[in-house]
Fold these 3 entries.
Entry 1:
Amino acid sequence: MAVLSHFQARIALEARTEGITHVNFSFDLGRNTQQVELVEKGIMLPNGKILKWAGLAEIANSRSSCFIMDDGEPRAIHIYSEETDRIYSLYPTQGAPTMLVSGIPMHRIKGTEPHQDTLEKVRAIKPVVGQVLDTATGLGYTAIEAARTAEYVTTIELDPAVLDLCRQNPWSQELFDNPNINQLIGGSFEVVSAMESARFTRVIHDPPVFSLAGDLYSSEFYGELYRVMRNRAKLFHYIGDPESKSGRSMTAGVIRRLEGVGFGQVRRVPKAYGVVAVKEIGQRLKGSK
Ligand SMILES: C[S@@+](CC[C@H](N)C(=O)[O-])C[C@H]1O[C@@H](n2cnc3c(N)ncnc32)[C@H](O)[C@@H]1O
């Protein structure tokens, strides 16, 4: 089974137009490439099946979907969740795809791409060591990246349909293969509230936009994050474009609320579109003398 977007389909169609018979081609949205043969009916798969030209032309004409294809018709990757009444789909980029939640991209794609976006988020709290909490799994990119250096990553996703989407995304596979990533299903507010105190050394908080999950921007939730963090643990909180009007006011509100529940060293990280904060029990006590 191949997972393709217009980026891959166009390579094959252009090669065919030029009369080329062998090209380097990716069957997993650009993660890996291999040489394939272009035959009269389409692309010859390693298992002998053929991805037909008509299907590839359909994919090449669709700029906003990723597709699963074998020797039949291509099928766009999207899922409707009855649980949340949201539609999730994979939106292609040159590299890792992003996820659209009811049309809203869950990663930065303007002037960057989801993998780079993920690296900025994770680097903001480097070194990423010890026990990591990832409050919003999404496509699992932050959890996967954190798990490269951390001891253990616990990641929480509200909607099981998102994990079904992950299963179809080649860039999310480590979420299922890495034994150091523990997936929890539920609302982060409720799940984190039930966790033991002082457990995590790093927290990555990458929530959906405020309109989709306002509780994840509340003082009550920040207080719960503070509680489950160890002393000197670091939090990265993604917020959005700090140059936009809404991003600016949202950032100011987030900083005020983080400081209000006890976080110290709260600083903007414009490159990562978010803020970093540290749990400093000693500092807090000194300051209160
Ligand atoms: C911005 S995406 C996270 C992207 C992720 N960090 C990644 O690297 O792919 C936000 C995710 O949070 C999920 N979500 C929404 N509300 C939530 C909640 N209350 N608790 C946990 N996850 C939630 C959404 O379904 C979505 O998958």
Entry 2:
Amino acid sequence: MKLYITPASPYARMARIVVIEKGLESRVEIIAAQTRLADSPYYKVNPSGRVPYLIRDDGVGLEESAVICAYLDQLDGKPIFDLLTAEQEWEGRRLEGLARSMLDGLTVWGREITRPKNEQSPTVIRHEADRSKRMADLWEREIDHALMHGSLNMAQLTLACTLGFEPRLPDFHWRPGHPKLCDWFRPIAARPSFVATMPPQHH
Ligand SMILES: N[C@@H](CCC(=O)N[C@@H](CS)C(=O)NCC(=O)O)C(=O)O
């Protein structure tokens, strides 16, 4: 299989972490795609131009981080990231949705600050910075949920890649006032799969 990524993408990072956590490194070739470039050769591989994108062994391509993670997770017949038991499923999805909502805002913010200065919108930046503060407050409360502890699942993976987007956003300060979130993040960020996939610092 081939997994197209960019080193800074938190969505691609989720798929890369599942590859490592599931021991699939020898089966999945990681390829850096050239995104956001006029006429990039990558658009012939994936017309949307987004990462992550997984080309399965049968040649079929999959888009969307959650779909790709679920596919990689079930390859060995023992999915661990997706919470599929009836009593956990909706809580798992609810928490994953909350984390993804925060991440979607951060990536809009991140895109804004990588544009040329004269194209950046202070209104968009303020809107996303404010949203991230509200969501960090929300997560300081939700982090006590039982599903946010124990074996790594999609909700935890999504939130960890959200908080772990900080090197890309110099003004994203989620730690002050959120001690429980700090304690939660520390051991997850230290996992080899997270260390190996850290996004590069924004300059
Ligand atoms: N909903 C998608 C989002 C993927 C996404 O937005 N990827 C960004 C990188 S963080 C991208 O490839 N951007 C390139 C572009 O917009 O052309 C997912 O979860 O996989």
Entry 3:
Amino acid sequence: MKWILFFGALIGPSICGREKFFGDQVFRINVRGGDEISKLSQLLNSDNFKLDVWKSPSTFSHPVDVLVPSVSLQPVKSFLKSQALQYSVTIEDLQALLDKEDEEMQHNERQERSNNNFNYGAYHSLEAIYHEMDNIAGEFPDLARRLKIGHSFENRSMYVLKFSTAEGRRRPAVWLNAGIHSREWISQATAIWTARKIVSDYGKDPAITSILEKMDIFLLPVANPDGYVYTQTKNRLWRKTRSLNSRSPCIGADPNRNWNSSFAGAGTSNNPCSEVYHGPHANSEVEVKSVVDFIQQHGNFKCFIDLHSYSQLLMYPYGYTVNKAPDAEELDEVARCAAKALASLSGTKYQVGPICTTVYPASGSSTDWAYDNGIKYAFTFELRDTGHYGFLLPANQIIPTAEETWLGLKTIMEHVRDHLY
Ligand SMILES: [Zn+2]
């Protein structure tokens, strides 16, 4: 007991209050074809095993990643064996990875406090990200402004950075969205790095300079602030919002199934305990509604890009139907060029395609909503990695990820710049 108290005092309150995953593992299960998918779905839908699906089954024989709690390891292994499903263990010791990440974060916080410098190669608290947004706006007052677009369910501010060289005029605009799923930390980290990159490269890099001569960029680094805080204080693997449900003790809705685009369709759940619960109605999540209101009020967005993790995919509409989007050919071409530019830095391979047929059906997603509301250039990135770390990408991969992603983002924005409509 004494040890626990002593140890707790040493490593601070955040890790102590957080849910532990001792002995839990992440399995990668290989599925080939419909028969195996239906067998696997039986396992995933069973309440008995308390599984957390990290990467859902798709119709296209991609492997499925599942967090298996220690108590379910034996029964799940037996089930997989009995059904002749092949699997491997991708994360042997989940808690060890979490401990390492937490230790690194706290070490970095101490360093940043002493040298007063934001380290872009580290994960940060919401407060630190907001503070850095403020710093950027303060350092580049002619280029960047921090705007409050609303608040979260638990009343945290939602801030965007607006990059503009023509204050006052309503130019065509790009929306960069990050962190809608709170556990996908590489997304928020890539976003804040991108903010710094834009202000540092403006006037030096002809591409970003010319983009900003024609368009404004709005960047929302933390689209789900309550969820993000929750991942740092209670459960690192929290995905949804933190809103209360009137008909269930389960908390939150999936904010990327809550947009008004084929709401409650394929790839969502009406069970508030599900990770893909769509919420009671479209825009029920105030975080989603804030973005929708802002974009509609502005009325001149031409591009919407949502950053997620993980899997290394670059996708475009639709998610809610297998039907081709009217602009599918152009979007596919742009995405292929962006993926090529991204890969040129260190060879990171991305798969390109429409959401529905590249991963799985997903209705009520941000990208489909953007597209259906006249924002033609709508894309979703699933950033690094491909499963070795899943959502727990080590901080030393933040800058390499952000740098390569920037090449992809720039390629898309240059295309938008040259094809304004
Ligand atoms: Zn996501």
